[in-house]
Amino acid sequence: MLTRTLSIARKEFLHIIRDPRTLATMFLIPIMQLMLLGYAATNDVGHVIMAVLDWDRTPESRALIDAYRATDYFIPRYYPQSEEELRDLMDRGKVRVGLIIPPGYGRDLARNGTAQVGFVVDGSDPTVANTAYAAAQSVGQSIALEMIQHRLGGQAVHGPEVRARVWYNPELKSTNFMIPGLIGMILQTLAMLLTALALVREREKGTIEQLIVTPLRASELIVGKILPYVLVAFFDLGEVLLIGTLWFKVPINGSVLLLVELSLLFLVTALGIGLMISSAAQTQQEAMFLSFFTIVPSLFLSGFFYPLDAMPAFLQMVSYAIPLRYFLIIARSVIIKGVGIEALREPVLALCLFAPVTLTLAVLRMRKQTVA
To answer: Which helix (H) or strand (E) covers residue 120, if one does?
Structure first.
């Protein structure tokens, strides 16, 4: 049995090595996906171009502008002379935010200790708008606090003091969240797609009939077919971890061995789904279509892009049927939080259920086709 399985695996390896397109798909696409999504799929907002409409032109107004400039969020670049000019800049996408300092700002500030300024935000991009809005309020509160201390002769102002502290990802870097998710996405995409195409390719060439008439069992054929892709997927896993750590500076706080072991569990599930697709498709085009039909919903309903808590209850229920959901919890928990297996019982048990079910269904379908 082992000899026959290894023969099938050797045959599949030879096909991979002799096909440059397959080699490129396996080893270059993970790097391309990681680099593109690692940079592009981020919610970190900074260096927002700002327009300043300063009708006051006093030292106080200039101090306010300098306070915004001192942050990493805003870059005052345009200085329009009217609100119409400010609106035109925002309409043309030149600026995302605008600071409007009314006449008498410095006088009101000196006389009453308070003054109002306007801050307009381009809300067409909610992510940028929310970040800019929060940063603008933070700058205003910081200036107000400094003024209160100045009026009290430098005395400290006492009051409620909330000391917020962020665990696991203190800098709130999006890459620390995205890179572990990319590991799951890349593993699933490659394993499912390549495995789905492997058997369909045999069917298209007419060689699947030759394999069926041999003494090979369905399980031997499947194991021999998926074994090369398991090894390739693990190579890709190491590739992604290495680039994520060295290039994107994402620290791996947990056990790498535990991550690899649980990746194998998830990989078996993805391979099982790929085999099920290959048993249902007659052509490589059909296999590609069915693979993307499976991959796309899993990306949006697994928590890869959007938090599951923000989804309607119905979609949250659907997400429980998606294996990637559980692996994302595992990868992010091990890499970001550094937790052990004891904190991952639920997602691990879920994958322990998915892996044998998908593989068993794939073997049964393959055996049925072999008998037929």
So the answer is: strand 118-121
pTM score of the predicted model: 0.72
Question: Residue 328 burial by CB count (10 A; 0-12/13-18/19+): exposed, middle or buried?
Answer: buried
The pLDDT of residue 90: 82
Output the six-digit token pair for 105: 């700002």
In the sheet where 74-78 sits, what is the strand order? Answer: 74-78, 48-54, 97-101, 118-121
Quote the CA–CA distance of 84 and 300 in Å, as a whole number. 40
**Rounded-to-10 torsion of CA 353, 358, 359, 361:** 120
Q: Please give the Cα distance from 362 to 275 (Å, whole number).
A: 6
- Residues with Cβ < 8 Å from 105, sequence gap 6 or more? 55, 56, 58, 60, 61, 64, 115, 117
Please tell me what DSSP assigns to residue 155. P
CA angle (254, 255, 258) in 5-degree steps: 125
Q: Please answer whether residues 274 and 196 qualify as being in contact, where contact means their C-beta atoms are separated by less than 8 angstroms.
A: yes
The CA R_g of the chain, rounded to the nearest whole Å, is 28
d(CA 228, CA 246): 27
- Dig out the tokens for 308 from the structure: 């599951």
Q: Is the confidence at residue 241, as pLDDT, over 70?
A: yes
Rounded Cα distance, 96 and 357, in Å: 51
Give tens-digit pLDDT for 181-203. 888 888 888 888 877 777 777 77
The secondary structure of 131-145 as a DSSP string is HHHHHHHHHHHHHHH
**In this structure, which amino acid lies at residue 267?**
L
Nearest to 217 by CA among 12, 10, 370: 370
Listing DSSP states for 35-84 in one string gives HHHHHHS------EEEEEEESS-SHHHHHHHHHHHTSSSEEEEE--SSHH
